[in-house]
Amino acid sequence: MQYLWTFLVGGTLCAVAQVLIDKCKLTPARILVIYVSAGTFLTLFGWYEPLVKLAGAGATVPLTGFGYTLAKGVSKAVSEKGLLGVLTGGITGAAAGITAAIVFGYIIALLFQPKPKK
C-alpha cells in the first residue's frame, strides 16, 4: 500500500506542475519557486508532515519536499541555536541533497559532451 500512496502523491504533484506549465504558461522556474514555497509554508502550518508520513518519497522527492526539508532544518536549528538558526538551518538540513546534486552533476558533465541546440 505504501508504494501506491507514494506513486499517487508524487504523481499528483508532478501532474499539477505539468498542468501549470501547459495551461497557465508559467515558466519552470516560477513553478519551482511555487513548489518550494508551498512545501515550506505547508510545513510551517504542520500540514505537510502527515503527507510525508503517508507517502514517504512521493512527498519528499518533489520540489515541495525540498521546501519541507528547508523548513525542518530551520526549525531544528532555531530550537538549538536561537535566531542564528534562521540563517543556517535550511542549508544544514538540505546539505546532503545539495552536495549530491553538485557531485552527480559534475560526474555527468565529465562523462558526456554537451551538444549545441539547433
Which characteristics define this entry?
mainly alpha, globular, 0% strand, 6 helices, 118 residues, 83% helix
Structure, described:
- This protein has 118 residues and is mainly alpha-helical.
- The protein has one domain (2-111).
- The chain has 6 helices and no strands.
- α2 (28-44) crosses α5 (63-81).
- The longest helix is centred in the C-terminal third of the chain and has 27 residues, at 85-111.
- The chain starts with a helix and ends in a 7-residue tail after the last helix.
- The relative contact order is 0.11.
- The mean pLDDT is 91.
Parts with pLDDT < 50 across at least 5 consecutive residues: none
Number of domains: 1
Separation of the first and last Cα atoms: 45 Å
Q: Which percent range describes the beta-strand content?
A: under 5%
Task: Determine the mean pLDDT.
Answer: 91
* Alpha plus pi helix count: 6
* Broad shape: globular
Write a concise synopsis of the structure shown.
By secondary structure, the chain is mainly alpha-helical. The chain has six helices and no strands.
List the helices and strands and how they pair.
Elements lengths: L1 H23 L3 H17 L3 H8 L1 H4 L2 H19 L3 H27 L7
Helix pairs in contact: 2-5, 5-6
